[in-house]
Amino acid sequence: MSRGDSHFATPNARSENSEALIAVLDQAFSKRSLVEWKTVLGAAGIGTISTVDENACDPQMIAAKAFVPFRDGSALTVNSPFEIDGVTKIASTKRPSVGQHNDEILGVWVRRALSRPDPTKSKIMTMNRKDAAAGAFFVAVLTLGYSGFFVVNLQ
Questions:
Q1: Are 142 and 106 a contacting pair, CB within 8 Å?
Q2: How far apart are CA 79 and CA 64, in angstroms?
Q3: Separation CA 141–CA 128 (nearest Å)
Q4: How far apart are CA 30 and CA 59, in angstroms?
Q5: Distance between CA atoms of 103 and 128, rounded to whole angstroms?
Q6: Beta strands 76-78 and 123-127, pairing class
Q7: Fewer CB within 10 Å: N-end or C-end of the chain?
Q8: How far apart are CA 155 and CA 150, in angstroms?
Q9: Residue by residue, what is the 3-state secondary structure of the chain?
Q10: What's this model's pTM, rounded to 2 decimal places?
Q11: Are 53 and 75 in contact (CB under 8 A)?
Q12: Which residues contact 125 (CB under 8 A, 6 or more apart)?
């Protein structure tokens, strides 16, 4: 890439050729370490490059309350940028682990299916607790708003 390369001369050209531009930048940035790039870019007045850990300790990020603790205080997470007058933000919780709520969620479906007046109209499927494809199918059914019920036989 040269400074006069028309593929990158304007913001629109850079956007249209973003994949090629990213490849060029990746190649250039791979030639130096993070420490070296901080020195070079800092000397040029371009600013700093920070790691996630460095950002969490950055005085400006702390002053801006960009990071807040999880409800249990175990770590920091990115703060929501939205403020609503008169509403106190609720501290975030960590994401659930894979399968953490399977029994609760699937139990609701089983109870609903078994409480139908005519259970013969329910669909029956077998699901292994560790079967990601079946879990994804189940989420898709919920997302699509399927009006029927499933009797789930957990193996």
A1: no
A2: 10
A3: 17
A4: 29
A5: 12
A6: unpaired
A7: C
A8: 15
A9: CCCCCHHHCCHHHHHHCHHHHHHHHHHHHCCCCHHHHHHHHHHCCCCCCCCHHHHHHCHHHHHCCCEEECCCCCCEEECCCCCCCCCCCCCCCCCCCCCCCHHHHHHHHHHHHHCCCCHHHCEEEEECCCCHHHHHHHHHHHHHCCCCCEEEEEC
A10: 0.42
A11: no
A12: 134, 150, 151, 152, 153
Arithmetic mean of pLDDT over the chain: 75
Write down the residue that tokens 């479906």 correspond to.
Answer: 109
**Which residues partner with 126 through β-bridges?**
153
For residues 49 and 41, is the Cβ–Cβ distance under 8 A?
A: yes
Count the residues in the chain. 155
pLDDT in tens, 68-121: 888 998 888 888 888 889 988 888 888 888 888 877 777 777 666 666 665 444
